[in-house]
Amino acid sequence: MRAIGLSAFNELSERQRMHALFEVCSSPIWARRVLAGGPFPDEEALLDRADRMLAELPDAELDAALDGHPRIGDRPDNASSAREQAGVAGADAAVKAELAAKNREYEDRFGYVYLVCASGRSAEELLAILTERLGNDPETERRVMRSELAKINRLRLQRLLSEHGAQ
Prior knowledge:
By secondary structure, the protein is mainly α. Helix content is about 70%, strand content about 0%. It is built from eleven helices and no strands. The longest helix has 24 residues, at about 140-160.
């Protein structure tokens, strides 16, 4: 996903905007609902719409959103995840192995991938957060996961809308 700026985003065809939003979040329902609020007068209007649509997303649709996120520590399957998980790439083998084991434990406990806004965080930090979150009850963890997804979506949208990268 490359930065294009808000004006260029608003000028894309509906199909192109849908594709750009789908790169931010792999929930088709979220992308359609965000798109329905356009064109956007400013970046904040788009970010607010994205946040609201995620907050209203049915729990079942969150699973579709999670499909776009590889496990922390696994080989990222898209450029956004690779950028966001850069702090894990250089971690030592023991930390990566513990991340993998705790990821499996998390998925067994909660039924979905451990999701955290990983940007700027080291593998050790992400492991500590994962270890702490394993103590959450399922309802609390679902709220935490939704909050982390909102942070990730917001960062990805800000990157997409960055005028600096659109030059």
